[in-house]
Amino acid sequence: MSLPFTAAQLRRGVAVVALVAPVLVATLPAHAAVLTADDILTQFNAVVSNNFSTQHDVEGRLVAGNINNSTSSTFYENPNSSSAPSTFQAVNANTISSCPSCNVDHGGSVNFTNTNSGTFGGAPVQKNNPSFAMSDFTTPLNALQAKLAGMIANSNFASPNNNSLVFDVTPDASGTAVFDMTAAQLAGGPGDNYNITFANEASASTIVINVTGSFTEGGGENFNGDTYLNEHVIWNFENATAVNVKSWHGAVLAGDASVTNSSPMEGFLYAENFTGRGELHSFPFDGSVSGAVPEPSTWAMMALGFAGLGFLGFRRRRAATA
User: Quick one: which of 23, 33, 11 has its CA closest to 138?
Assistant: First the structure.
């Protein structure tokens, strides 16, 4: 018998349910997430679920599936005083394959769960302190990406010429401005050398930019942001498999993508893989998405998620009876 929905739809539906119905999800006999998406965005500089490799410094807390540096780096190099307190260490990794002559500043510690083959310049290195699974981070962040992708756009962008891309921020009553665009629109066409700017940015507490497709920032593109954008913008690359930027401002959510940078990224990063050719600068997110209104398609995914949870419960009950 074929199911009326795909496995991907079911996974996404369950992810949305995990965000909007944490009490229900917590009752399942599975590994429960210990952090909310808001916790992660305010406590950490980067979450990279698979391979993390960089030649440059990381200012705030890091979580990675595998740290595989070929050269030395300095972690927790300049933690932002606005970051929320955390029970996690400065560096947290399932596995540390390589990190020769790495350093951890500001009294930070290293936490790993499987193996450690790195050298951290005298910083305390501990195992399972605290114990965690990557799903503690990926589950709430994937759910956040799905929720943001379902938000209704209420703001517009324009390219008055091939040297300018302007986001006209017009927030709703909750203070949230939402944009929808393709990666091609963000990159511009041949000959375009966009200067990315925001109009009326301070009128919104949260600016969400949903970008479909993989993105590579154009060679002549220029993004001169500020601290407000760093702390109030979320770039949601929900279905991207690759995101390549130079200097970038605001939180980047790209949980299925390999991300690279050639100049500092100013804000939170969520990626599957990261190859750092520029620093990661810590700017905890200071907005809110609690007032977001999902589109009907998102409610449909939620229904699929509830159906999926019910199906899992049915299978468990049936197995127990057998």
Answer: 33
On the 0-12 / 13-18 / 19+ scale of CB atoms within 10 A, 139 is buried
Task: Give the lowest-confidence range in 28-32, 130-134, 234-238.
Answer: 28-32
Classified as helix, coil or strand, 313 is helix
User: Side-chain half-sphere of 235: how many Cα atoms within 13 Å?
Assistant: 29
Question: 233 in the Ramachandran plot: left (φ > 0), alpha (ψ -120 to 50) or beta?
Answer: beta
pLDDT in tens, 266-300: 999 999 999 999 999 999 999 996 644 444 444 34
- Who wins on pLDDT, 183 or 24? 183
Q: Cα–Cα distance between 44 and 115 in angstroms, integer?
A: 22
Distance CA 237, CA 291 (A): 20
Q: List pLDDT tens digits, range 31-55.
A: 334 799 999 999 999 999 999 999 9
In sequence order, which residues have a C-beta less than 8 Å from that of residue 294 and are 6 or more positions away? 16, 147, 150, 151, 302
Indicate the angle between helix axes 7-20 and 296-321, nearest 10 degrees: 100
Strand partners for 160? none
pLDDT at 191: 87
Q: What is the pLDDT of residue 15?
A: 54
Q: Of 81, 82, 122, 83, nearest to 102 (Cα)?
A: 122
Q: Are 192 and 218 in contact (CB under 8 A)?
A: yes
C-alpha span between 110 and 125 (Å, rounded): 5
Torsion on CA atoms 43, 48, 51, 54, rounded to nearest 10: -60
Q: Which amino acid, 7?
A: A
Tallying the residues shown for the chain, one arrives at: 322
Q: Is residue 159 exposed (0-12), middle (13-18) or buried (19+ Cβ within 10 Å)?
A: middle
CA separation for the pair 124, 31 (Å, rounded): 28
